[in-house]
Amino acid sequence: MLADISEAIKEIKSKDHKKILIQVPEGLKTEVSRISAKIEKECCVDVFIAAEPCYGACDLPLKEAEVLGCDIIIHFGHYDFGVKTKIPVIYVPVEIKAEISEELKKEIEKIEEKKIGIYSSEPFRRLLEYLGDYLEDIGKEVVDKKIILGCSEFEPAGELNLFIGSGKFHPLALKGKTYFLNLERNKLEDLSRELMKEEMKKAARISKFEDAKKVGILVSTKPGQFYQDCEQFEDRLREQGKKTKILIFDMITNEKLMGLDFDVYVNTACPRILDNPFDKPVVNLRDLP
User: Fold this and answer.
1) Domain segments of the chain: what residues?
2) What are φ and ψ of residue 237, in 5° steps?
3) Band of the pLDDT at 153, cuts 50, 70, 90?
4) What is the rounded distance in angstroms from the CA atom of residue 226 to the CA atom of residue 222?
5) Topology classification of domain 204-287
6) Nearest to 147 by CA among 185, 174, 110
7) Which CATH superfamily is domain 102-190 in?
8) What's the distance, CA 100 to chain centroid?
9) In whole angstroms, how far apart are CA 258 and each of 12, 45, 262, 278, 279?
10) In whole numbers, what is the pLDDT of the chain averaged over residues?
11) 78, 158, 181, 240: which has the fewest C-beta neighbours closer than 10 Å?
């Protein structure tokens, strides 16, 4: 991963900042000491590092910045999620240097569908543009082109979704026929069956929710995930005859739910929490009718 911090440094120098908190994704942790040292040297400020796992721009370290008395947060790897903050936040893009190999190009040329939606995550923005041009050159029609989040709600725009990047976190947010241009494995993978299984699991979770009598409502304090209408939602469930309680966390995990006697849980935070195993059924709020 490569991060250009020149704009962040200009911003810091233009203001009277004294304390800076920086937050990086997992893939940039090996560089975080070097980045912090560079900022300290060039800007004559104190730099602190947010060490909790970073799940995106919905997960800003606002409490940590406030406790330390920081003037600004520098968040690496994601674009502005729209979280309103009292402490200013600078978003620094991160680029992953990668190319589409000749072997992968041959696999792409075998795709039969003509109308294709192409998608990626922020660090692969440059490659997404390249892929769009390449598909047009070989006679395909690019009907959609977006940077997506793992929590994106998505409806297919073409005959096929084509995701380029690494890891399945983002492409599993897609729906319908989906191919994954996996740059780490140098392979074109069909995720359609896997996505169909996820839809079946979702239907099973919803069925269990409908039969449940005691429901725990999971609420996260993460600034971009907090569900402000959780109490109104609880009232709605009680009107349906369900016994409910709101449970509030920073990070929602199965271990924290152990010992509680609810039949099912409704997750109001990041929908990808369900990627982790839970002993009791958990259904995403957005999946409920």
Assistant:
1) 2-94, 102-190, 204-287
2) -65, -35
3) confident
4) 6
5) Rossmann fold (3.40.50)
6) 174
7) Response regulator (3.40.50.2300)
8) 24
9) 45, 44, 10, 9, 8
10) 94
11) 240
Q: In this structure, which CATH number among 3.40.50.1440, 3.40.50.300, 3.40.50.280, 3.40.50.11840 belongs to the domain 2-94?
A: 3.40.50.11840
pLDDT in tens, 194-236: 999 999 999 999 999 999 999 999 999 999 999 999 999 999 9
- Of 88, 64, 91, 67, the C-alpha closest to 79 is 91
What is each CA distance from 55 to 46, 154, 189, 265, in whole angstroms?
A: 25, 20, 25, 21
Tokens standing for 289?
A: 């009718």
Please check whether the two domains, 2-94 and 204-287, share a CATH topology: yes
C-alpha dihedral sign at 118, 121, 122, 127: negative
Alpha carbons 55 and 183: distance in angstroms, whole number? 22
Provide the token pair at 267.
């997750």
Q: Tokens 């900042």 correspond to what residue?
A: 17
Taking only the tens place, the pLDDT of each residue in 129-149 is 999 999 999 999 999 999 998
Q: Which two tokens stand for residue 174?
A: 């897609």
* pLDDT band with cut points at 50, 70 and 90 for residue 1: low
Give the CA angle between residues 261, 265, 268 to the nearest 5°: 145
Element (H, E) at 72: strand 72-76
pLDDT of residue 289: 87
Which pair of structure tokens corresponds to residue 133? 């041009």
For the entire predicted model, the pTM comes to: 0.88
Q: Residue type at 15?
A: K
